[in-house]
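User: I'm designing a mutation panel for 2-oxoacid:acceptor oxidoreductase subunit alpha and want to avoid disrupting the core. Could you give me a predicted structure to guide residue selection? Please restate the sequence first so the numbering is unambiguous.

Assistant: Good idea. Sequence first, for numbering, then the predicted structure tokens:
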Amino acid sequence: MIRFAGDSGDGMQLTGSQFSDTTALMGNDLSTLPDFPAEIRAPAGTTFGVSGFQVHFAAHDIMTPGDAPDVLVAMNPAALKVNLRDLKPGGLLVVNTGAFTAGNLKKAGYDKNPLDDSSLDGYRLLKIDITKHTLQSVESFGLGNKEAVRAKNMWTLGLMMWMFGRERESTAEWLRGKFAKNPAVADANIAALNAGHVYGETAEMPQGIHAYEVPKAKLQEGHYRNVTGNEATAWGLLAGGKLAGLELMLGSYPITPASTILHYLSNLRAYGITTFQAEDEIAAVCAAIGASYAGALGITTTSGPGLALKTEAIGLAVTTELPLIIVDVQRGGPSTGLPTKTEQSDLLFAIYGRNGDCPLVVLAASTPGDCFTMAIEAVRLATKYMTPVILLTDGFLANSAEPWKIPDISSFEPFPVKQRTDPVGFHPFLRDPQTLARNWAIPGTPGLEHRIGGLEKSYDSGNISYDPDNHHKMVKVRAAKVAGVAEDVPLQAIDQGEDSGDLLVVGWGSTFGAISSAVLGARKAGLKVSHAHIRYMHPMPKNLGEVLRRFKHVLVPEMNNGMLVKILRSDFLIDARGLNKIAGQPFKIAEIEAEIRGLLASS
């Protein structure tokens, strides 16, 4: 596990992503954790401006970015101050001494230079003036001092590539492409990359510091690529549209950490998707609803604050019974909260957060790659049941990466949408007797002209109705339609362990990796613990209550103040116990494993 950390202008995200891509090409399994400030450019040298990127790579299957890094690369005192507490005892600490000036030390809150006292004696310390070596390596390219210093992240990357046996050519090719219009900058960065590697080869390292190679992982045969959750979500939506035979229309307003879905889909216009960057969140979702009314599939992407603004329009989609996909990439809240940090605090809002009895389908992806599968599932359910579907991901899934086996799209069963064409006996709220979905007619089709809207409609005619009995019936029918989705989703499975025992750890969303790893560790220690992960949040799988009752204890780790645990307790009347973390950071494996051991020891 390596963590690159520095100022938000030091290029740590780029360094980490390039190390990750190279590691994927080497055939390792990996998981990443980008961690950066919300400010576009926080004050240089301050602790709240620190940007980090952790990479966990191995020769075996791994599920998380790791708890504590083995290697910390600290590009300045602030990066050291913020991240040192996480470094493993005896871990390797690589420090850029060139940034440890009196001014930077003061900004980071140091009274004295930690490189000169005994405070770092518990680590293997490698002190290098990376700034000086970088300037020397790019001196011949005629760059200004500011541009030259920027290359220090590539020098650092080169050193780490030497230390862990990574190849450099893919990064060099990437640099040539990125700076194609400025070859001198590309060449300077490549020179810095190579210089860092050469330094590792030729410098006399302190005792205990040497090159170390992680062999290839034994992954299932196939074609792989690195994928983030937002990339996978974008491709899943596109694949879902193809399987449904529909054109897609994304109406979106930029919001961290969902914005890159808009970016990815905007580059896929050739595949039948229209993207529209609206002036605000309300306009974005209303445009998507309009697209669905016109016969395409409307999609909107957002995070918690945007979901709040879209709420009234989502209610319109519920009462008009139009298919609509809402991707909520959750972040820390409330209000604008922690824009670049992760959280799972929108679950209750997604299920219940609209005026009136306003049910819809809620799904949750569990890994970056699973975002692809669940996006397709969102399209399938939205079009089959004529309902909005909220797909919950979060900032951790959105930005973290993993090797993803590229699926064969022909292995996915198409679910072509059949829109109404027969005008005989038509009205807009005629329903399929099995799914209770209303028929979907494209406006302007001869004989199928109709209007829909936010006012209640007659069950028998589709006209506006204020009849109290009719309203009661329509509310019940809409609820029954969504509840019926439970008949069309997989039964809840046990992801790991026996189907009964002392403890079931129940998770949802991005806690999957940490829970799975913690349960595996506990089982190796002989504890009778199992793991079940819920992906269908509303309605839930119809056998979930039966599964829960087969265990003496139920533990629910969540990155919120206790949301799924409330639902499980109220819906299934079980004494579920919550483990809550609301720190803007994912769970560590050790946190969940300690709770498992403590709960079983006290029972």
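For picking mutation sites, this is relevant: The chain has a mean pLDDT of 96. The radius of gyration is 26 Å.
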